[in-house]
Design a protein that fits this description.
The structure is a single chain. This protein is mainly beta. The protein has 6 domains: 2-112, Sandwich (Immunoglobulin-like), CATH 2.60.40.10; 119-201, Immunoglobulin-like (Sandwich); 209-297, Immunoglobulin-like; 300-391, no CATH class; 402-551, Immunoglobulin-like, CATH 2.60.40.680; 561-642, Immunoglobulin-like, CATH 2.60.40. Strands 26, 29, 31, 32, 35, 36 and 38 form a 7-stranded mixed sheet that branches. Strands 17, 19, 20, 22, 23 and 24 form a 6-stranded mixed sheet that branches. A 5-stranded mixed sheet has the order 2-8-7-4-5, with helices on one face. It is extended and about 110 Å long.
């Protein structure tokens, strides 16, 4: 058609004019704006309209170049302002100075008021599959439209698939995916011209056809294999199927049988991407999707990835953030199973490991092949979960830097906000070559509203917010805020001062009576690990601070009722613990770890009247525990610190 030729000429003209604009400078008195106004927004084929250009921002003599394309194939319109045009179309204006330096452009569309002179014909309408599967096809031929075109069908989903795009007329296009039934076809061009037609897709007499894929074993180990089976249902044989193997290798199958088996040692995703009932003849029919199946590799004992356990020590906690900082932005193999559920995931070894032999595959907690902040989601989801493995870390000495909880207020009252600065190092003993650290801030949940605790690690001497990532997990019943932060730049920092702030909201609901008294609340840091950019563990000690909590004591029990009658000491303890009761008898003593696992239990006779008991706790690992003492007056709960 002429429209294609005219469009090409118009584009060439614009290119020449723009080239002139580059070569010669324009003389303007300000920013030049160009606009077009039309005396008509829509026209019939022979109707006329006047286009007027408005130019602001310059006082130099101007030249006007109107061009346009419409159903008549018009190209050059006028070189004067205003210009008269005939019929609907897309009209463009280029404004230059007398040296042909381009100053601005504008475009206006005048829509059509009548149906197009073009037509559409259905060249073919292949039958559709039985049932709801869409295998029908229609081939359209259309002329007389102003391109680009929009071609749609109604109803549109899920079949057929609506299609639209730019076409050069006359054009012929095939649209597939129709189920049986009636469809309304609409062809619309850029001028608003449109026509509709009805398409009736018949129902095929071929039986319903579908396929699916299975594996005899969903998990295989080294040297093992599984049987991949493609199942065909209905239709008329022979069948074709294209199966995508792991590694994007395409396997093509042609079979007269309804079941096709083959044995493979490959693990990964097998996808039956397309199955065809080819029946008799060469024309494919009834294209359906058969789904996929995933075959997993069994983990070698002790080599599974447990999402969130980035430091490969058997437990998910704040220490798992540190390897992420060390390996930040590293890339490697994508894990077959990229979910973060708490079970052993098979993963190929990465080429990199930390100096303590922690392969980067463990640090890629979400298995997507990239180590970044997204891997912390697995830590937070699986926090405190464990599996069989062990690990540990060292503590600091007297000459080492200290992480200190700097309590900002000496005295606070009910509903006050208590602020604690997390102070790393001092002027006398700074913290040197710091890359990341993990620690636990212990607080007294008796006097803290545990629903309102907030930890913030913003800009500090350790780095800006963009240079590090952090996590904080509040174990409320235990009174523990387990934190970690690490740089992600692969460079260390040295210094001293605040690296973060923790705010607690004070509550004295368990303490209040009538006259003010004061309760000493202790805050201390333990379970510390400090590393440099190579993963070396650096010495670091933990500090202690306290504040006075003002409350109104009652005449009965001041702190949590029965808790004031039960005492445990020493605390922190090493290998021995004494539980003592004042005026009440013990029925049972239970000690549980931070995730609720009971590690010690002692039961006493109703008539024994035991008021004091010494327990051997040498088998307990260092850390935080809860001691529950069941007495004849109620249940007391105390927090125990085991330190060695």
């Amino acid at each position: 058609m002429k429209s294609k030729i005219f469009l090409m000429r118009q584009a060439a003209s614009v290119i020449v004019m723009l080239a002139l604009a580059i070569l010669l400078p324009a003389v303007c008195s300000g920013q030049v704006t160009v606009s077009i106004s039309s005396t008509a927004s829509s026209l019939g084929p022979t109707g006329t309209a006047t286009l007027t250009a408005t130019v602001t921002g310059t006082s130099v003599p101007l030249k006007y170049f109107y061009t346009g394309t419409n159903t008549s194939g018009l190209y050059q319109v006028d070189s004067a302002n205003p210009a008269t045009v005939t019929g609907p179309g897309v009209y463009s204006l280029l404004v230059t100075d007398t040296n042909y330096i381009a100053l601005g452009q504008a475009v206006d569309t005048i829509y059509s008021t009548v149906p197009p002179a073009g037509s559409v014909s259905i060249l073919d309408s292949a039958y559709s599959c039985a049932g709801s599967f869409g295998g029908g096809r229609v081939i359209l031929n259309y002329t007389g439209f102003f391109v680009p075109l929009s071609i749609t069908f109604s109803p549109s989903g899920p079949f057929p698939i609506g299609q639209s795009g730019s076409f050069v007329e006359p054009a012929q296009d095939t649209f597939a995916g129709f189920g049986p039934g009636q469809y309304i076809l609409t062809i619309k061009d850029v001028l608003g011209q449109s026509i509709t037609d009805t398409i009736q897709m018949p129902t095929s007499t071929i039986p319903d056809f579908s396929s699916y894929i299975t594996a005899s074993q969903d998990s295989i180990g080294t040297g093992q294999s599984t049987i991949i089976t493609v199942h065909f249902q209905g239709g008329i044989p022979p069948y074709n199927a294209s199966v995508l193997e792991p590694g994007d290798v395409l396997l093509l199958i042609t079979t007269p049988d309804s079941v096709y088996n083959y044995t493979t040692p490959l693990a990964g995703i097998w996808e039956d991407s397309a199955a065809l009932d080819i029946g008799i003849g060469s024309e494919p029919r009834c294209n359906v999707y058969g789904g996929q199946v995933q075959v997993y590799n069994n983990c070698v004992a002790g080599q599974c990835v447990w999402p969130g356990d980035a430091n490969w020590d058997g437990v998910v906690n704040n220490f798992d953030l540190l390897p992420i900082g060390l390996a930040y932005d590293s890339t490697g193999p994508v894990r077959q199973d990229t979910t973060i559920g708490w079970y052993g995931h098979y993963s190929a070894q990465w080429s990199d490991s930390l100096q303590d032999s922690i392969n980067y595959k463990y640090i890629d907690c979400n298995g997507n092949g990239i180590i970044d902040a997204n891997d912390t989601n697995a830590i937070m989801q699986n926090y405190s979960l464990t599996y069989t493995r062990g690990g540990g870390f060292g503590a600091g000495g007297s000459a080492d830097p200290v992480l200190y909880p700097g309590v900002q207020q000496d005295t606070v009252y009910n509903k006050d906000t208590l602020t604690i600065q997390l102070l790393l190092g001092s002027a006398g003993i700074p913290a040197n070559n710091v890359y990341g650290l993990a620690f636990t801030l212990n607080y007294d949940p008796t006097v803290v509203d545990t629903t309102k605790t907030v930890a913030t690690f913003g800009n500090s001497w350790l780095g800006t917010s963009a240079e590090k990532i952090s996590i904080a997990k509040d174990l409320k019943p235990m009174g523990q805020l387990q934190c970690a932060l690490t740089r992600i730049t692969h460079t260390t920092k040295s210094g001293s001062g605040s690296i973060g702030v923790v705010s607690f909201v004070i509550t004295t609901d368990n303490l209040n009576g009538k006259n003010y008294s004061y309760y000493n609340a202790l805050f201390y840091i333990n379970n510390i690990k400090l590393i440099d950019s190579a993963g070396n563990v650096l010495p670091l000690g933990g500090g202690t601070d306290s504040t006075q909590i003002g409350f109104l004591p009652t005449n009965i029990l001041q702190i949590n009722g029965i808790n004031s009658l039960v005492h445990i000491y020493p605390n922190p303890a090493n290998t021995q613990l004494v539980v003592s009761c004042n005026g009440v008898g013990m029925k049972q003593i239970k000690i549980a770890d931070v995730i609720g696992n009971e590690v010690v239990s002692r039961i006493y006779s109703e008539t024994a009247n035991v008021t004091q008991q010494q327990l051997d706790i040498s088998a307990l690992s260092q850390g935080i525990y809860m001691v529950e003492v069941i007495t004849d007056k109620g249940v007391a709960t105390q927090k125990l610190v085991v330190a060695r």
